[in-house]
């Protein structure tokens, strides 16, 4: 006889399976379109079986734009930003959570308030700064503005405040440790799972960014993956098969990344949930 707990478990697994299918279907549809042409992609009822043109369209992607160079550029930009988020945001969060200095609360309030400002409003002043530095059409124009974020600082500040006790700080200072040693040898190892998740989120955000790279990058050899996909389209028509083939190829590195670090990411999120 099925108990109440078994019924709950059955519905739970059913909902999880439906949610998984709903999340995977856009990726599957992208692959289906990437193996066909525009006419097939717009046919009603739509085709749900992959065609046989994927390798042909993938070859066109690599010959139309410098796609491999674009993937490498995206890896450099997203990887540097991911590391910057993990280190710089945790460092700023440690300062706001555990150090006492004049104006700490006011500065933290300003950081939090910047999250209410739409990203588009910062495009013009940010471009003026990048242009004055001579960084237009360079990768540092993408890397430097994204090395830290207000959300990352806020999240690490909350996590460090709940994880590192004042007693540990006092004991470390009695043992002769300075502020940097306390952060690097005590605080950062304890919050490393949360910093890893934050870095991964920063990596994905930088990988998928389109607006800012589209503004500052001019040369094809400087394109990131998202700008290379845009370059596959001309001004009048869009070859859906070619565009979706490039999108699918640009998604593969993220899928590979999540295959290797997905378990660790979930563990870091759950660690932060229990401690926060």
From TrEMBL:
Keywords assigned: Cell membrane, Membrane, Transmembrane, Transmembrane helix, Transport
ABC transmembrane type-1 domain sequence ranges: 71-261
Membrane topology: Multi-pass membrane protein
Record keyword Transmembrane helix present: yes
Main location: membrane
Pfam families: BPD_transp_1
Keyword Transmembrane in annotation: yes
Transmembrane segments: 67-94, 106-127, 139-156, 240-261
InterPro entries: MetI-like, MetI-like_sf
UniProt subcellular location: Cell membrane
Similarity remark: Belongs to the binding-protein-dependent transport system permease family.
Descriptive protein name: Carbohydrate ABC transporter permease
């Amino acid at each position: 006889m099925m108990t109440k707990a078994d019924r709950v478990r059955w519905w739970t697994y059913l909902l999880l399976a439906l949610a998984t299918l709903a999340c995977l279907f856009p990726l599957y549809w992208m692959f289906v379109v990437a193996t066909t042409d525009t006419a097939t992609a717009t046919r009603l009822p739509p085709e749900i079986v992959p065609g046989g043109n994927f390798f042909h369209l993938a070859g066109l992607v690599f010959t139309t734009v410098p796609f491999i160079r674009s993937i490498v550029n995206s890896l450099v930009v997203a990887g540097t930003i991911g590391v910057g988020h993990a280190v710089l945001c945790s460092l700023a969060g440690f300062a706001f959570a555990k150090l006492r200095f004049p104006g700490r609360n006011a500065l933290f309030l300003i950081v939090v308030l910047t999250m209410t400002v739409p990203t588009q409003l910062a495009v013009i002043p940010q471009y003026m700064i990048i242009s004055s530095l001579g960084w237009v059409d360079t990768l540092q124009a993408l890397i430097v503005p994204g090395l830290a974020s207000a959300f990352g600082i806020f999240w690490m500040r909350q996590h460090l405040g709940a994880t590192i006790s004042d007693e540990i700080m006092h004991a470390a200072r009695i043992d002769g440790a300075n502020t940097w040693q306390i952060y690097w040898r005590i605080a950062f190892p304890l919050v490393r799972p949360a910093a890893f998740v934050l870095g991964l989120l920063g990596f994905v955000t930088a990988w998928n960014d389109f607006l800012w790279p589209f503004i500052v990058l001019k040369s094809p050899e400087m394109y990131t993956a998202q700008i290379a996909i845009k370059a596959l389209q001309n001004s009048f028509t869009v070859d859906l098969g070619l565009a979706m083939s490039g999108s699918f190829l640009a998604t593969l590195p993220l899928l590979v990344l999540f295959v290797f670090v997905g378990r660790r990411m979930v563990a870091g999120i759950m660690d932060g949930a229990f401690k926060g």
